[in-house]
Amino acid sequence: MAELMIGLPLLPTTVVGSYPVPEWMERLTSDYYRGRMSRAQLDDLHETAIKAALRDQENAGVDIVSDGELRRDNDIDYLLARLPGVELAETVKDFASDYYDVTVPRVLPDTDPTGPALGLADDLAFTRAQTAAPVKFSFTGPFSLARRARNLAYDDRHELALAIARVLNAEARALAAQGAELLQIDEPFLAGYPDQVRGAVEAVNVVTEGVDATWALHVCYGNRYARPLWEGHYDFLFPAVLDARVDQLVLEFARKGDDDLPVIEKFGWDRAIGLGVIDVKSAEVETPDLVATRIRRALDLVPADRLVINPDCGLRHLTGPVARAKLAAMAQGAALVRAEL
């Protein structure tokens, strides 16, 4: 984490991952999944959208940017449907954001002789070529991916998650070779299964094993169609998450309030915190002063050099103008507190 911070201001700002998908882009992407658009046309659409998302983040003052996950039909299928050996009940879907019906009929191969199967390093290479800013690259973690697959090959979902983790580890090694600065594992389903955190952490550690990069772990309460799937408190993560070989926990606090902040101190989390200060489930734009207040409250419990400032979750379900305004307010609020320090 220290190496990533070199050259960045105190309280650096970033995003969680996804960026708004305009209605026209959703429509055109869905045309591809209905067989009405070529792959080359889809690729051109994605690259244009990624360039625009990067400019938006830079213009808002975000320090660590993302490709907006704009190549991905959704957070699950872009990875799960590409795993070697999986089967899809249908290869056509009405809307890009719909989930495939995915089955794992046999044991997944640990290695692919043709190289990493998911192609994530190519995605990162394109993004890094479009910006001089540090890039965060996120992908859905093995626990959440295993929850969405019909398992016919393993004794239980935990064994499936470990197998998926080994595939993701190969991808992470390729991402690191491509120069990845910050890699983030997203586990949006973990809050729904609080009794399974220890197994999820074991799978996370398989993903990060031997990969020389700064690692973040993002855990929220779900963000499907801008609605939480679960409610609760982050104490369910502890003490198991203390064993996670990651450098940063990225958590949501804006929507839920600060009740969970003392949990971080209580259980002795001694690494960085990605502090959610923007509510992505509301179209109301926060003021810079409100963002600054949320940061100041966190500083009572977490040192400034261990805080990274971000939205609660991905921005996918906001409109473009709202997302841009929220990111600008986030950057301005961080700057207000930075000046006080």
Reading the helices and strands in chain order gives: HHHHEEHEHEHEHEEHEHEH
**What is the overall shape?**
globular
The tally of strands reads: 9
Low-confidence stretches: none
Tell me the span between the first and last alpha carbons.
20 Å
Radius of gyration (CA) equals: 19 Å
- Beta-strand content bin: 5-15%
Structural class: alpha/beta
- Strand order of the biggest β-sheet: 3-5-6-7-8-9
Total number of helices: 11
Biggest sheet architecture: 6 strands, parallel
- Fraction of helical residues: 25-40%
Mean pLDDT: 93
Give an overview in words.
46% of the residues are buried. This protein is an alpha/beta fold. It starts with a helix and ends with a helix. The strands form 2 sheets. The chain has a 6-stranded parallel beta sheet with strand order 3-5-6-7-8-9. The chain contains 11 helices and 9 strands. The protein is globular and about 55 Å long. Helix 10 (288-299) links the parallel strand 8 and strand 9 (307-311).
What tags apply to this protein structure?
341 residues; alpha/beta; 9 strands
Secondary structure topology:
Blueprint: H1 2-5, H2 23-33, H3 39-60, H4 77-80, E1 87-88, E2 102-104, H5 120-128, E3 136-140, H6 142-147, E4 149-151, H7 157-177, E5 182-186, H8 197-208, E6 214-219, E7 248-251, H9 261-266, E8 272-278, H10 288-299, E9 307-311, H11 320-340
Parallel strand pairs: 2-4, 3-5, 5-6, 6-7, 7-8, 8-9
Antiparallel strand pairs: 1-2
Helix pairs in contact: 3-11, 5-7, 7-8, 10-11
Summarize, please:
This protein has 341 residues and is α/β, with parallel strands linked by helices. Helix content is 38%, strand content 12%.
